[in-house]
Amino acid sequence: DAGVIQSPRHEVTEMGQEVTLRCKPISGHNSLFWYRQTMMRGLELLIYFNNNVPIDDSGMPEDRFSAKMPNASFSTLKIQPSEPRDSAVYFCASNPGIFYGYTFGSGTRLTVV
Amino acid sequence: KNEVEQSPQNLTAQEGEFITINCSYSVGISALHWLQQHPGGGIVSLFMLSSGKKKHGRLIATINIQEKHSSLHITASHPRDSAVYICAVNFGNEKLTFGTGTRLTIIP
């Protein structure tokens, strides 16, 4: 298995532009998580899905952020409009269910200028 | 409040030394995870624990449920072990709450 696949690896965009991050979880994993990592706040959960259904989005910072999981093999995290304070590394992770370990993607480093 | 604390924040040691990183948490948990992140790199899951002890190569993880405490040990440390080690906890659901990480540097 290729693991959790995220794209793009790096994204540089101008303030106000729409940004879409993509994630393909490991086949058969029922849960998918979006995390954000910054120097100031460390790792934070943004949202997670179970069987393609959003379970907890309490970590999504504001309405500019949205996430979808249209099927078991694909998820997107969208920021519209982007702001410089959104600059961070965004990780996607999946696992087969609770009480299992997590597999993380390589992350997307987002820079908003 | 559900909190996870790690110590030390930074640790520098000579190659070959025995390393211990500590993690404590505030309330009961369903599982505890140790993660490794190399500089500029992705995150790798090392262990998941709900009780007892696990070993993988030179890495050992233990957890004491009564004391709400876990330790990650590295025996015969090597420069390639230099990384940030992160403790993360499931407080009864699938959400992970993370510690602030321990930056480990092993000097040859």
Number of strands of chain A: 11
* Envelope shape of chain A: globular
The first-to-last residue Cα distance of chain B is 41 Å
The oligomeric state is heterodimer
Q: How are helices and strands ordered from N to C of chain B?
A: EEEEEEEEEEE
Number of strands of chain B: 11
User: What separation lies between the terminal Cα atoms of chain A?
Assistant: 36 Å
Helicity level of chain A = under 10%
Return residue spans of chain A where pLDDT drops below 50 for at least 5 consecutive residues: none
Mean pLDDT of chain B: 94
What would you report as the Rg of chain A, rounded to the nearest angstrom?
13 Å
Give the DSSP E fraction of chain B (strand runs of 2 or more residues): over 45%
Main pleated sheet of chain A? 7 strands, mixed
Number of discrete helical segments of chain A: 0
How does this structure look, described?
The complex is a heterodimer of chains A (113) and B (108). Chain A is mostly beta strands and 113 residues long. Chain A has strands spanning 5-7, 10-13, 19-24, 31-38, 42-50, 53-56, 65-71, 74-79, 88-95, 103-104, 108-112. Chain B has 108 residues and is an all-beta fold. In chain B, strands 2, 4, 5, 9, 10 and 11 form a six-stranded mixed sheet that branches. A five-stranded antiparallel sheet of chain B has the order 1-3-8-7-6, with no helix packed on it. In chain B, a hairpin with a 2-residue loop joins strand 6 and strand 7 (59-64). Chain B is globular, with a radius of gyration of 13 Å. The model of chain B has no long low-confidence stretch (mean pLDDT 94). Chains A and B meet through strand 4, strand 5, strand 9 and strand 10 of A and strand 4, strand 5 and strand 9 of B.
